[in-house]
Amino acid sequence: FKLPSDSFKYLVWCDIEEHSVRGNQLLCPRVREGPSEEELFFRKEEHTLKRRKQVTDTEKWEKRLQENWENCAELNLSFQDLGDLYQVENLKRILRRLIRVEKLWLVDNSLTDLSAIRLPRCRELNVNKNHFTSFKQLPKIPQIQHLSLAENNITSLNGISDFRHTPLESLILKRNPCEFQERYRQLVFSNLPNLKILDGIPKLPEDCSPPEVRFFYRMCTIL
């Protein structure tokens, strides 16, 4: 039996009538879009269309104002359950509008590439538990201070030097394949001399030595 809420299950918060809540007032909004009309017919869920109607240009503009993503300073878009490509595209549409966001969480969204996204004011970004394989796939974050990439699939440190000229202070790479690279901490700190904390551990004296110098000290000289 169909429940009374069935006709609302694919609606995002801003599609519900008679409320004035804006996007920058929410910390954990549901942003994934519902299926297209064709997909609903294919799923035999066309009854959900009863609540849908033709949207005018004015209503589209009112929705954009209500979303108000441009004024979000702190936002959690984690665990969005992005099961379809069009839902991922809708998330990227929102990310492109976050021109003032300073703290952003995108945990466990199966994301693979956000290199086309720019977050000009973002100081804190958490993209734990996604599918990134390279630093090159991250968004442009020139003001980043705290970056968390735990539980992705980053295999090498190639591209990490792109953050050399950012104010990055803290970086988390736990449970990535690159963590098992020889002289891992020394390599990270040599590429990021301004970094203060790696994987929750402050910079240690032995982390400051360039890898090649540290290797020289391991050599045994016989006289």
UniProtKB/TrEMBL annotation:
Keywords: Leucine-rich repeat, Repeat. Gene3D superfamilies: Ribonuclease Inhibitor. InterPro entries: Leu-rich_rpt (IPR001611), LRR_dom_sf (IPR032675). It comes from the Eukaryota. This is TILB protein. The lineage of its organism: Eukaryota, Metazoa, Chordata, Craniata, Vertebrata. The gene is Lrcc6.
